[in-house]
Amino acid sequence: MRAGNTSEAELGFKQVALQYPQFAAPLVNLAILQRKDGNLEQAENTLKSAVVRESDSAVAWTELGATQRMRGEFQDAASSYEHALAADPRYAPAWRNLGVLSDLYLGDPDRALKAFEQYKEITGEDKPVSGWIAELRQRLGLPPVKREPAPATPGSPASPGPESAPGGSTPPEPAPASQPQPGASATGV
Q1: What angle is formed at CA 87 by the lines to CA 128 and CA 110, rounded to 5 degrees?
Q2: How many CB atoms lie within 10 A of CB 60?
Q3: CA distance linking residue 101 with residue 143, whole number of Å
Q4: CB 44 within 8 A of CB 67
Q5: Range 113-119 contact pairs with CB under 8 angstroms and sequence separation of 24 or more
Q6: How far apart are the first and last CA of the chain?
Q7: pLDDT category, 172, cuts 50, 70, 90?
Q8: How far apart are CA 41 and CA 50, in angstroms?
Q9: Confidence band (pLDDT; 50, 70, 90) for 167?
């Protein structure tokens, strides 16, 4: 399908949806095109058909929730995100969308915090989600999350190495010539 030819793409997705009625994916893709064209009601109806076809599709439920949010149907969107998470508790986009919806549209910072913490745990993403978590914790009057200390490296004060062994006076080994000495810049200047 050529870029920008949505009519051809829509026709293709409709044909695939007819050939494979058990799958939600062609309808999800069709609905995304409909949504991009501004046909939100049509996209929502298409996505509702998709979740009837494949009720355990976290992607279809999440796209339905996003479309409902765009239409101002915030409670329905939250319900769709919850369905997505029931289908796949590790589907990170549903957690992120639920967090945004809960915070900005539903005024539920507790739910938003839980959603963003789950999203971060699943993805390992630090920015911007850590900032959102910190801001929500502050609004809720919760203490900041303490960062895990970096794992100790051999020879660091947190991990005794040969240079700090009891009674030992073994000096640290000098850095190899190809590496700058501590305190020297990488360019040797």
Answers
A1: 45
A2: 29
A3: 23
A4: yes
A5: 113/137, 113/140, 113/142, 119/92, 119/95
A6: 56
A7: very low
A8: 14
A9: very low
Cβ-Cβ contacts under 8 Å for 172 (sequence gap 6 or more): 155, 161, 163
Q: What is the 3-state secondary structure (H, E, C) of 71-112?
A: CCCHHHHHHHHHHHHHHCCCCHHHHHHHHHHHHHHCCCHHHH
For 140, the 3-state DSSP assignment is: coil
DSSP-derived letter for residue 43 is H
Report the alpha-carbon angle 67-44-1, nearest 5.
Answer: 90
Q: State how far Cα 81 lies from the chain centre.
A: 13
Q: Has residue 164 got a pLDDT over 50?
A: no
Cβ(29)–Cβ(13) below 8 Å: yes
Amino acid at 34: Q
Structure tokens given for 189: 């200047």
d(CA 114, CA 111): 5
Place of tokens 């971060």: 120
Q: What angle do CA 170, 189, 173 make, to 5 degrees?
A: 10
Side chain identity, residue 115: A
